[in-house]
Amino acid sequence: MSRGIATEPRTTPRLELRPFRRRDLESVWEAVHDSWPELAKWLPWAHAGYGRVEAMHFIRDSASAWAEGRAFDFAIRDRFEPDRHLGNISVWPTSRRERSGEIGYWIRSEVTGAGIATEAAARVTVVGFEELELHRITLRIAVGNRGSERVAEKLGFIQEGLLRKEVLVHGVWLDHTLWAMLEEEYRAVRPEWAERGWVAES
Predict the structure, then answer these.
(1) Does 201 fall in a domain?
(2) Could you tell me if residue 3 is inside a domain?
């Protein structure tokens, strides 16, 4: 399994996915600020006081993680309105020996329901299997987060079980469902993703 991947943008018909830049600070902060009431239900870092300092720390940590091969965070941008931040999506190795990894994401509240998470997750799953040479990719989704469950279902991830009280979010322990896709399952569903326009033809 390769340690790192190239930093050039990855695209879909609607989206550009690229590493974060220092000048993204204001647009990232604005997207979190506008979305925190919804994000705070599921993510421990999202809160009303999320500020520019926290956004800058994330951007700096993201660059370090990418350089070290620990995690690969992508800014989700509209290809035709590239200054507008639509959310974050990441893929990171969880075991190099077993070639396993995980994907996580959040989407700006005002554009949820438009298929952005599905399109971005399909493209980053391609990164995981084809660039990072993973054997298995997982998604962990908080119980009750039906939008994210629909993303997993549409992409063909298999629900494997329940992780009880796995994450503490603002004083509440949340159960998560565990979803996974294997490399052979990915090869089987990728042509359908291309037909739906989520990824390019292989």
Answers:
(1) no
(2) no
